[in-house]
Amino acid sequence: MALKHAKHTNGRNGYKKNIKKVFELKINLTPKNIFLWLFAAFIIFFIFISARDVSKLFPDKPLSTLINDVKNGEVKKIEVIDTKLLATYKDDKIYSSYKESQDSLFKLMSDAGIDPKSVEIEVKDTTGGAIWLSILSNVLPLILMVGFFLFLIRQARGAQDSLFSFGQSRAKQFSKGTPKVTFADVAGVDEAKQELAEVVDFLKNPQKYRELGARTPKGVLLVGPSGTGKTLLARALAGEANAPFFSMAGSEFMEMLVGVGASRVRDLFNTAKKNAPAIIFIDEIDAIGRVRSVGVVGGHDEREQTLNQILVEMDGFSQNENVVVIAATNRGDLLDPALLRPGRFDRRVVLDLPDMNGRKEILKIHMRGKPFVGNVDWDRVAKRTVGFSGADLENMLNEAAILAARRDKKAIEMQDIEEAATKVKLGPEKKRLQSDLDRKMTAYHEAGHAVVTHLLPHMDPVHRISIVSRGMALGFTLIPPQKDRIHETKTHLLEQIASMLGGRAAEELIFNEMTTGAANDIDQATSLAREMVIDFGMSSLGPVNFGPTMDVTEWGGRYFNEVRISPEMQGKIDHEVNAIIEKGYKQALSILKKSKDKLDLVATELIKKETLESEEFEKLMGSSKSTSVSNNP
Questions:
Q1: Hey, what long-range contacts does 58-66 have (CB within 8 A, 24 or more apart)?
Q2: Calpha distance 163→154 (Å, rounded)
Q3: What is the rounded distance in angstroms from the CA atom of residue 551 to the CA atom of residue 555?
Q4: What pTM was estimated for this model as a whole?
Q5: Bridge partners of 281?
Q6: Distance of CA 310 to CAs 263, 338, 340, 631, Å?
Q7: Residue 298 in this model has a pLDDT that exceeds 50
Q8: Would you give the end-to-end CA distance of the chain in angstroms?
Q9: Cα 581 to chain center, whole Å?
C-alpha cells in the first residue's frame, strides 16, 4: 500500500513539474517573430470569420412556417443577418431560416397581414466585414506572392555567395581562449622542440637575427610515423607563439571545382600576410604536395595546380616575409622535390619513435591526473614498451585506468599497466572454447618459441608467454627488445628466424604433425630472410641490391625503378632464402631436442596457468637470460 502511495505522489509531482515547465516556456519576442505571429493570427481570424456560418448551429425551419409562427405569436425575436434569419421563440428555442436577398422581412410580414411591431426585429449590418474580407481576399495572394519571390531571391543570393566563397580559405585560426598546449606537454622529441622553439624566437625577436644577417625560416617540415607527435608539436607551437596561427589540413584545399585549391592557398597566405608575423600549419601536406607527373603526357589536375600555388606563395617572385609555414606528413618520400628545397622548407625535422628516456618523459606527462600505487617500476615499463609511439603510450595508460576502474580499484597497479600494454599491441583477451588437444598444441607451440629464444645467445629475454587468445592469434610469446637497436647484425637476424620457427619445430617434435598455427611465424621468417638476401646483402650472393630502387630525374622527379633479374638469378635468390629458413628451422629443432624436458615443463605449466611471466618462465628454465647468454651485439 505504501508503494502505491509513493507512485501516486511521484506521479502528481511529475504532473506539477510538467505544468510548471509549460508556464515557464519562453518565446523569443524579436520584431520579426512578433510580425510573423500577428500576420498568422490575422489570417487565421479572417479565415475563421469567412468560414463561420452561425445559422448552421441551429435547426432549420422553412420561411413560411416561420411567418405562421410569428402570426400565431410564438416568436419573440428575429435577427436578420443578410439573407439569414435567426428566430428566438418564447420558449427560448432558436431556429434558422433563409430569405431571398431582394426580399424584405417587413414586406413579407405585411403581405402576410402581420404587424411588424408585434415581434422584435434586429437587423445586423455585415457590409464592413464583407468589405474587409474582399480586400483581404484580393490583397493576401499578392502579399504571399511577393513574399515568395523575395524568399527565392534571398536563397539565390545565398547560393551565389556560397559559390563564390569556395575560393576562400577555411583555415582555423588559433584563439587565446582555446585550451593551451605548450612545449612542456611534449616529450620524447627534444630536437624537434628545439627547432620549433627557434621559430618562436624568430617571430618574437626578429631584430636579434636581422642584425646578424639571418632571415626567418620560411618553412619547417615535420616527418615521422603516425603517433610520434607531429600535430601535438604544432599545437604546442600555437600555444607558445604570441602570433596569429592558422591551421588547415591538406585535404581541405581540394574541391570538385577547378581552381578552388589554388584560390584557397592564395586567400590563406594573403590572410596570414595581413596578420604578419604569423604561422601557417598544413597537416598531412602529402595530400597536395605529392610528386608532380613526370611522364610524357604530364598532368594538369587540380592537385598539381594547388601545389604550384603553394610553391609560388612560399618562395615566388613576390617575397613572403614573416610568415612561417609548418607542415606535417608521414610520407615524406612522396613529396615533390621543389617543395622540399631550401627557401621553401628550410628545415626538415624527422620525428622517430621515442627511445627509453623519451618514453619515460612521455609517461610522466600522461601520468598527470591518474593515481598510481607507489611500487610501479617505470623503468621496467619504459623497457617493456620498446617500439611504442607517444600515442601508444597515452593509449596504454588510458586503458590501464579503464581496467583499474572496471576492477573497482582506487589506484592503477603494475599489472593493470602490463595488461594494457599487451592489449594495445595484440588486442583484448578472447575466451575461445578449445578442446584439450588444441590447448595442448598451442601450449607446446608457444613453449617452443620461448625455449628456443631463451637458449639462443643473442636474443632478448622472454617477457610473457600466454595461450589466451588475442586478436587472430590463439597464443603469443612476447619478446620486447631490452634496448633500442640502431643496427641489426646478421647473427641476431638469423636467431630471430630460428625463434620464429621454434613453434613449428615443437609441433613436429611432440606431435609429429604440422598445424596451421605457424602460418604467421612462417610469413614473418620468410619476409625477414628475403630482406636479408635482397636488401641487406647478407648472403653468398654478395652485397647486391636485387629490389626496386628510387631514381631521381634531371628535373627532380622521382620514380621507382624495378630491377630486372634474370630467371637464373631469381632462382639463386630463392635458393638463398630457402637456405636461411632451413638453417633456422634445424637450429630450433636441435635446441628443442636437447631441452625436451624444459619444453614439457613449460608447456605443462602453461596448460595449468595459461600465462607465464618472465620470472616464472626463468624459474622453470633454471637460469635467467642475463647469466646464460652473452651481451647482445
A1: 58/86, 58/94, 58/95, 58/96, 59/95, 59/96, 60/95, 60/96, 60/97, 61/87, 61/95, 61/96, 61/97, 62/97, 63/97, 63/98, 63/99, 63/108, 66/95, 66/97
A2: 14
A3: 12
A4: 0.63
A5: 247, 326
A6: 10, 10, 12, 52
A7: no
A8: 82
A9: 42
User: In 10 A of CB 159, how many CB atoms?
Assistant: 10
Beta bridge partners of 559: 551
Cα–Cα distance between 261 and 254 in angstroms, integer?
5
Query: From CA 557, how far away is CA 289, in angstroms rounded?
Result: 13
The answer for residues whose C-beta is within 8 angstroms of residue 616's C-beta and 6 or more apart is 605, 609
Q: Which residue bears the cell 572454447?
A: 433
For the packed helices 614-621 and 436-455, what is the interaxial angle rounded to 10 degrees?
80
Is residue 616 among the annotated active site residues?
no
CA distances to 15, 21, 22, 23, 33 from 26, in Å: 19, 10, 9, 8, 13
Neighbouring residues of 621: CB distance < 8 A, sequence distance ≥ 6: 451, 454, 598, 602
> What does the alpha-carbon distance between residue 271 and residue 172 come to, in Å, rounded to a whole number?
12
Pick 110 or 527 by higher pLDDT. 527
Q: Which residue has the cell 417587413?
A: 106
Q: What is the DSSP letter of 182?
A: -
Tell me how far apart the alpha carbons of residues 605 and 616 are, in angstroms, rounded to a whole number: 10
Give yes or no for residue 495 having a pLDDT over 90: yes
- Rounded-to-integer distance, Cα 628 and Cα 294, Å: 57
Average pLDDT over residues 60-87: 77
Listed in sequence order, the residues at least 6 apart from 404 whose beta carbon sits closer than 8 Å to its beta carbon are 411, 412, 413, 416
Percent of the chain with pLDDT over 70: 74
The closest alpha carbon to 627, from 383, 457, 480, belongs to 457
Q: Position of cell 422581412?
A: 105
Distance of alpha carbon 282 from alpha carbon 240, whole angstroms: 18
Selecting among 313, 446, 495, 507, the annotated active-site residue is 446
Nearest CA among 328, 333, 337, 350 for reference residue 219: 328
Query: Can you spell out the DSSP letters for 3-54?
Result: HHHHHHHHHHHHHHHHHHHHHT------HHHHHHHHHHHHHHHHHHHHH--G
Residue appearing with cell numbers 620525428 = 351
Q: 123, 82, 78: which is closest to 96 by C-alpha?
A: 78
Please answer whether residues 174 and 238 qualify as being in contact, where contact means their C-beta atoms are separated by less than 8 angstroms: yes
C-alpha cell at 164: 563564390
H-type helices in 435-501, by residue range?
436-455, 490-500
Q: Are 590 and 579 in contact (CB under 8 A)?
A: no
Q: What are phi and psi of 171, to 5 degrees?
A: -70, 145
CA 365, chain centre distance (Å): 23
What DSSP state is assigned to residue 350?
E
- CA distances 377 to 270, 289, 362, 381, 414, Å, are 53, 45, 15, 6, 7
Q: Distance (Å, rounded) from C-alpha 387 to C-alpha 395?
A: 14
Assign residue 414 a region: left if phi > 0, alpha if psi is -120 to 50, beta otherwise? alpha
Strands, DSSP E only, in 473-572? 476-478, 549-552, 558-561
Please give the pLDDT value at position 37. Answer: 65
The cell numbers describing 488, all together, are 641489426
What is the reported pLDDT for 290? 78
Please indicate whether residue 124 or residue 86 has the higher confidence score (pLDDT): 86
| List of E strands, 55-119 | 75-81, 84-89, 94-98
Q: Prior bond to 480 cis, omega within 30?
A: no
CA distances from 60 to 54, 87, 380 (A): 12, 10, 101
- Looking at residue 554, the DSSP 8-state letter turns out to be T
Looking at residue 627, its amino acid is T
